[in-house]
Design brief:
Chain A has 337 residues and is mainly alpha-helical. Chain A has nine helices and four strands, in the order αααβαβααααββα. Chain B has one domain. Classes of the chains: A mainly alpha (337), B mainly alpha (345). The interface between A and B is large, with 84 and 76 residues.
Chain lengths: 337, 345
C-alpha cells in the first residue's frame, strides 16, 4: 500500500507521456507508416538485455500453471464458493493455501453463465498443465484473492486510481456483477500476454500446439469480459473508465522496456476499452492490439510485476504473497521497472 | 523493401533447418515423449457428448506434404484475412479493402457482391454498440492483411476472387453460382432450399455471418501454430490468433445474449456448426453457442483448449465442400498460394 501514492503519481506522468506520443504519431506518421516500421523492426535486434539461460518448456508450462492456479481459484470461488480440489494442488515447491475467496453475489444471468464457463475452462487448464508436466508440475503457491481492505484487489484498484469512496475504500470483486467483471478484467488480458510472450520460447511443437489452444481460450475469455464491461458501460460509464485505469496501472507496473524479440516487447502494451473516434464514428476497443492488429506479449518478469503488484524486482507480493513456484528462479521474479 | 527480402531469406534458411530437424525427429521416433500426455488430452474432444474420446495422437495431423513452408502458412492465413477483411469492410463502410492491398502472386480476383437481396453492402445497424464492435473488428482485419502482406513482401499472394454475397444468383469466374452465404445457410438448413440468407440485412444476420467466418479463422490460426517454425512469425501468428479469439468471444457472446430474446438464434447457430463439422471430416472441430440454459461461448475440448483445424479442413469449410477440390463456396476460383486443396472427407 505504500506504493500506491507513488504509483498514482507515476501513472499521471505516464498518461501525459502517452498523450504526447499519440500526438506525435498522428502528426508525423500515420497508421500505415507505423505498421511498416513495426515489421521492419523485426529484422533488427534492439534488445537491450542479454538473454539469461533459456527457460525449458517445462519451466514455461510451470509459469503458466501458477497463473492458471490463480485464475482457476478466483473463478471457482466466485462461481461456487469453493476452490480447486486438494488433488489439483500438489507438486514441487512449497504448497500454499488460498486466502479470501468467496462466492460472488452474481445476479445477472448472463454474467453467471460467463463466470461458469470461464471457471470450467480454467479448472481444465490446471488439470491439462498438471497432466502434461506430470511429476514436474509445481504445487499451488499461496494465493491471496481476498476482496477485503488489505487484499490485492483493493490494492490494485487503489493503485489504479479507481474511486472507492462509495465502498469505504475497499474494492470487493465478489460484491456484485460489475465488480466481478472488473476483478476478472484485472487478470484476463495478462494471461493472454503471458502465453503470447512464452510462445516463441517453446521448443516442442506439441507444446506449442497446446499452448496455442490455451492462449486462444484465454483470449476468448478476455473478449467476453471486455465486451461485457463495454456493453454495460453504456448505462454505467464508470465501468469503462475504471477498466481503462486498470490498464494504465498494468502498463505502469510492467515498465517501458522495449525488445524486438521474440518475444516482441513494446513500452505501451496495455489498452483500456473506451471507444475512440475514427472518421467521425465511435469504434470500440475490445481487443488490445498494436498497429498490426496483434495482441501484445509480456515477459515472465512483466507478468510477475502485475500479479505481484509492484514495479520493483521482487519474488513475491500481491496475489502471490509467497511468490510463484518454479524450479527456474528467473521465472519467479518481477522486473525492476 | 530490402528488409522483406531478408525476411524471406531468413525464412528459407529456417526451412532448411526444419527439414534437418524433421529427419532427426523421424529417426528418433516422432513426437517427443514428454508431451504425450498433453497431446492425448488435446485429442480428447468432448463437446457434443455423443462421441467417446478417441486416442488419436493429435488434433492437428501433420500435413500430407512435408514441403509446407512458413511462407505457405502465412499466405494461407492471408487468404482467409482477405475474406474476413472484405466482409467487415463491406458491412461497416459499403466498400471492400483498398486496391493497393490486393496485389500479389497468383491470380488476382475481385469481390463478388451480387445484387438485390443478399448483396454485400453496408449494414444498417440498429444497435450502436454492435456497430462499434464491427468497426473495431473491421480495422483489425485490415491491419492483419496489411501486416501479413508486409511480412511476406514479394511472396505475398494476391487476393483471390471472393464470393461475398448472399444473393440467390451471382456471376463468378467459374460461371453462375449461388451467393456463398446463402449456399452455406441452405446447406446448414438455416434457410429453405430456395430461400436466401442476407448477412447484411440486420444486426442478427450480420452476427450470424460473422460467426460463420470468424470461428473458421480462429480454428485456422489455432491449427497452423504447429506448422510455423520461425519464432518471430510464430509469435506474430499467436498475436493474430488471440485477436481473432477476442473477436469471436465478442461475436459468440453477443449472439448468445440476443438468443435470450430470440431463441431461434441457438438452433440456427447449431445448424451452422453441425454443417461445418460435417464438411471437414470426422474429427470434431466445431461447437455451437449452447442455449439459454447453458452458454458455450468458448469452443474448447475437455482440456480447455480451443479447437483447431488443419488447412485442408479450413478449405473444406470455405469451399463448402466435403471433397478434395481446389475451389468453391467463398473462393470460386480457389485461394492463391501453395495450400489450396481441401481434404477428401
Amino acid at each position: 500500500m505504500a506504493d500506491s501514492a507513488e504509483l498514482i503519481e507515476a501513472l499521471d506522468r505516464r498518461v501525459r507521456r502517452r498523450d504526447e506520443r499519440r500526438e506525435f504519431f498522428r502528426h508525423a506518421m500515420g497508421v500505415g507508416a507505423l505498421a511498416a516500421g513495426g515489421v521492419a523492426a523485426m529484422g533488427f535486434s534492439t534488445a537491450a538485455r542479454a538473454q539469461t539461460a533459456a527457460p525449458s518448456d517445462s519451466d514455461i508450462l510451470n509459469l503458466a500453471l501458477n497463473l492458471e492456479y490463480l485464475e482457476a481459484q478466483f473463478y471457482q470461488y466466485a462461481v461456487s464458493g469453493e476452490g480447486l480440489p486438494a488433488s489439483q494442488l500438489t507438486g514441487t515447491g512449497t504448497q500454499g493455501a488460498v486466502t479470501g475467496g468467496r462466492k460472488a453475489n452474481l445476479t445477472d444471468r448472463t454474467v453467471i453463465q460467463y463466470a461458469r464457463e470461464i471457471a470450467a475452462d480454467e479448472v481444465a487448464h490446471v488439470a491439462a498443465l498438471r497432466t502434461a508436466l506430470g511429476s514436474a508440475a509445481v504445487a499451488q503457491p499461496a494465493i491471496n484473492i481476498s476482496g477485503a481492505a488489505g487484499g490485492p484487489f483493493t490494492a490494485a484498484a487503489t493503485a489504479a486510481g479507481i474511486d472507492l469512496s462509495a465502498s469505504g475504500g475497499v474494492f470487493d470483486p465478489y460484491a456484485s456483477d460489475d465488480n466481478f467483471l472488473i476483478g476478472a478484467y484485472i487478470f484476463e488480458d495478462v494471461g493472454v500476454t503471458a502465453y503470447q510472450g512464452a510462445a516463441p520460447l517453446l521448443t516442442n511443437v506439441d507444446i506449442v500446439d497446446a499452448a496455442a489452444g490455451i492462449l486462444a481460450a484465454e483470449a476468448f475469455h478476455a473478449g467476453i469480459i471486455r465486451s461485457a464491461l463495454y456493453a454495460r458501460g453504456v448505462a454505467t460509464p464508470a465501468l469503462r473508465t475504471n477498466a481503462d485505469k486498470i490498464s494504465d496501472a498494468r502498463d505502469l507496473l510492467d515498465g517501458t522496456r522495449v525488445s524486438a524479440g521474440p518475444p516482441n516487447i513494446v513500452a505501451d502494451d496495455d489498452q483500456g476499452i473506451s471507444p475512440t473516434t475514427v472518421n467521425g464514428q465511435l469504434q470500440a476497443n475490445i481487443v488490445p492490439t498494436d498497429a498490426n492488429g496483434r495482441t501484445f506479449s509480456r515477459t515472465s518478469e512483466q507478468v510477475h510485476n502485475i500479479v505481484y503488484l509492484t514495479r520493483s524486482q521482487a519474488t513475491s507480493g500481491g496475489f502471490f504473497p509467497n511468490g510463484t513456484n518454479n524450479p527456474n528462479a528467473a521465472l519467479t521474479r518481477s522486473g525492476a521497472n | 523493401m530490402s528488409n522483406e527480402t531478408s525476411l524471406v531469406e531468413m525464412i528459407e534458411g529456417v526451412e532448411h533447418q526444419r527439414s534437418a530437424r524433421r529427419n532427426f525427429m523421424r529417426l528418433c521416433g516422432g513426437a517427443a515423449v514428454m508431451t504425450g500426455g498433453l497431446s492425448l488430452l488435446a485429442a480428447c474432444d468432448d463437446d457434443n457428448g455423443n462421441d467417446t474420446p478417441t486416442p488419436t495422437p493429435s488434433p492437428t495431423p501433420t500435413p500430407t506434404s512435408a514441403a509446407v513452408t512458413d511462407v505457405d502458412v502465412l499466405n494461407f492465413a492471408l487468404q482467409l484475412e482477405y475474406l474476413e477483411a472484405n466482409y467487415y469492410a463491406y458491412a461497416t463502410t459499403g466498400q471492400g479493402i483498398a486496391g493497393g492491398l490486393q496485389s500479389g502472386t497468383g491470380t488476382q480476383g475481385s469481390v463478388i457482391t451480387g445484387s438485390g437481396t443478399g448483396a454485400a453492402r453496408q449494414v444498417t445497424f440498429t444497435d450502436p454498440v454492435l456497430a462499434q464492435y464491427a468497426r473495431e473488428i473491421a480495422a483489425d482485419e485490415v491491419a492483419h492483411v496489411t501486416f501479413l502482406r508486409t511480412a511476406l513482401g514479394a511472396s505475398a499472394a494476391a487476393q483471390a476472387s471472393i464470393n461475398l454475397s448472399g444473393s440467390a444468383s451471382v456471376t463468378t469466374p467459374g460461371g453462375t453460382a449461388v451467393g456463398a452465404f446463402t449456399a452455406a445457410a441452405r446447406a446448414a438448413g438455416v434457410v429453405g432450399a430456395t430461400d436466401t440468407f442476407d448477412p447484411f440485412a440486420s444486426d442478427e444476420n450480420f452476427l450470424i455471418g460473422s460467426y460463420l467466418l470468424t470461428d473458421v479463422g480462429v480454428t485456422a490460426y489455432r491449427g497452423s501454430a504447429r506448422l510455423i517454425s520461425n519464432k518471430t512469425f510464430l509469435e506474430a501468428a499467436a498475436g493474430i490468433l488471440a485477436t481473432e479469439c477476442y473477436h469471436d468471444g465478442v461475436i459468440r457472446s453477443s449472439l448468445w445474449q440476443r438468443g435470450l430474446a430470440a431463441p431461434t438464434i441457438y438452433s440456427r447457430i447449431k445448424q451452422i456448426s453441425d454443417a461445418r463439422d460435417g464438411l471437414d471430416g470426422s474429427t470434431d472441430t466445431d461447437q455451437d453457442i449452447g442455449d439459454a440454459t447453458t452458454a458455450n461461448l468458448v469452443p474448447t475440448n475437455a482440456s480447455g483448449l480451443v479447437l483447431g483445424r488443419t488447412p485442408q479442413q479450413v478449405l473444406n469449410v470455405v469451399y463448402l465442400a466435403r471433397t478434395q477440390v481446389n475451389a468453391g463456396g467463398f473462393f470460386p476460383a480457389g485461394v492463391n498460394g501453395n495450400v489450396r486443396t481441401s481434404g477428401a472427407n
